[in-house]
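To fix ideas, we close by showing one paired sequence and structure record:
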Amino acid sequence: MAKVLTEVVKEEKRTKDLLVKNGFVFTEEGFREVTIKIRDEKIVSLVESEAGPILETAENIIDASGCLVVPGFIDAHVHFNDPGRTDWEGIETGSRAAAMGGTTTIFDMPLNCSPSTISLKNLEDKREYLTSLSHIDYALWGGMTGTNLKNRQELAQMSEGVIAWKSFMSESGIEDFQYVSPKELKQAMQAAKEHGKILALHAEWEKDIARLTAFNKQHPWLNERSAYLASRPISAEEKAVNYALELAAKYGTALHFVHISSPKVVRLIEEAKKSGVNVTVETCPHYLIFDEEDFLREGALLKCAPPLRKRQEVEGLWECLADGVIDTIGSDHSPCLYSMKETDSIWDAWGGIQGVQFTWLAMADEALKRGVPLKQILPLGTSNVADRFGISGRKGRISPGLDADLVLICLDETTVAEKKSFGFRNTYSPYENRVFSTKVKKTMLRGRVIYDDQKGVLNEKIGVCL
């Protein structure tokens, strides 16, 4: 009798396996026609179609016919402003928008929440506050600033609970998140090395920006939007990156540059990488799609820092991408109230772009238009991110043993970025009214469908902190 019961239990367990079939699955070997078997939130196996029958029921099949099945995207660069500024966004709405765009994991930056995540207490409070609020999995950045670097023991304690460190080499725009001076950056490099953590940098040279901003503000007869562009030139980015690379080489720090806007700077980082510096580089969709003419026309909606560049810079970034010298793509989703964009002066407008919902729709659309193979850009939002930030044992690939984070993308349907479909809290975006040539049909987090294009986002919030 016991043996019979054991077999019944085994049979019941087998019937609980979830199968994703009939799709073209993105694997380490490229796209393959395989069935994905999922059990207990993990991918169990990838089964070739000719491998024989699989136990199927109407309840345990997800039909991916006509779809690409890709790993859930990992966005290592978002500002969800929680806690403290949920009127700007909040993790509940930010993660909802992310799920709608196929993102299943985000790393939330340490500033724009209030207070900033620059102390152990703030980190612990933020972690507790976010529990059960997110639709997707997440990790937290810690902030190294000009005010907390002296608290080395506390930083060491914080390092246990953060995915990586973030510092600004120029004013951040947030009062309690001070930038690091050139001298302080040396301390930040040493601390990050001691913790065995990556140090990510917003790399613009503060003295140059301050001087150019003051100069351009003294000439009110100039077009303000042009003046803003002139206040943050590529040379300020290049100078900051050069200095940081020298320090990283000296101290052996693992470095990650965020939102690099110029191909010249990307190539500079690549040369350092070839020389042995432990460094990676991120860019963002807005630097690959929009240019300074778009900013001059649209204004604050496209204000960001570094600013958008000339079209030749955009094209140069695509050449870098084609050459494989860009490591990751992050949305740098940095929302605010619309009133903070509707200012009399461009100098007073909040600098940040809302785009987490459209990152990979935009990237896929642009890549397909340019004839860039999707297999070349997908790792920039999946395996490359997981490998760099040490979560490849759980995320980033469709492979046995990893979390069953999957996105079903249809190439035969389009997506219109309509205001009524926006998932983030404040319904405006530079992507509004754009038509993307692909559509996210389903997003799955650890084996559960959290977004369906017909049913919307799952009400239950199952995201956990990594």
